[in-house]
Amino acid sequence: MNHLIVFLVSIFLLPINICQAEWMSDVDKKYEVSKPQLYKKVAKAKTLISSANGNSDLNYQALGILREVLKKDQKFAPAYVQVARLIANFGHRIGNEIDGSALMSQEGSLLAALKIEPNYDYAIVMMGYTKMYQGKLDEAEDYYKRAIKMKSHYPYLKSQMAQLERRRGNYPQSLELGIQAYNENIDTPTIAAGAITEIIYSYEKLDGDNNNELEVWHSKREELEPNIAWNWGHHAQFRLYRIGDYENSIKYAKKALSLMNYQNARCTLAKAYYAKWANIKDIESRKAEAEEIFAKARSIYVSGEMVALEFGRNPVLKSASKPLLKKMTGLFTKYEDLKKQDRCY
Q1: CATH of the domain at 86
Q2: What is this structure's pTM?
């Protein structure tokens, strides 16, 4: 990954996965009028980045377009903002985080945009986003306040502020902002779904039993964006880890994998299979089925010992821990199998 980021920096003289609606900054409108052909290319790249959702081909198409634009005009500020978004796509990590090197490159790209257009609210808000992911929360807030003072209508501003409060541990405030963002953008599915993600994360952090609320919001997000694999994978994790519902966890993980074959969903599927095996293994009429399920789980993630240890730390899945450890005792695992399996931890 680092060599790719260095390559991007060298191309663009310096450097999020935030999907955009049809909102346009006044700065973008200015460039659309002054240099329509170049702006048309940037708009195309923007669409590709927004719709990539893990599709590296779309990201590379956007890379080629932005490289072409900046080769023609190194002071085309809107291109640098899209470069920052593109780098976030390349640097995205499981758990809604971004690689540290990518964050440095993003910041460089946004600084370039702001050097050209100091009042570019799109770049200002995204700089807040970058600072937030760098862990510089007070600096992030300063950028967000600057955008608010400018009366920017950037559609993800309130969702990002919800995330900022969540990172500070202010979960009730984060939830309130997330719900506001959802209600204000309920007619724009992509933006509303982004707000729901913040609502879900906040509920996960709040004390008490919030499972009913979480189920409602997971389902709403899937209704809004049924073709986003991560939504289904996240739902699968919720059903397994918080409820112990391995059947629906298997169902949702499979749905996620039907949309995109990615590691996190595969690992969730394996763990749900292990949990199901532990639940049905002693039922006489289902012993053969249990062994088939165990084989499926192990074909995805061979180290059942690691899963058993994780289950042991989870009150919902704890009962599956000892049977799984016992099952794994004496099973011979070839080194070649360990090397090729999914790294779930």
Answers
A1: 1.25.40.10
A2: 0.81
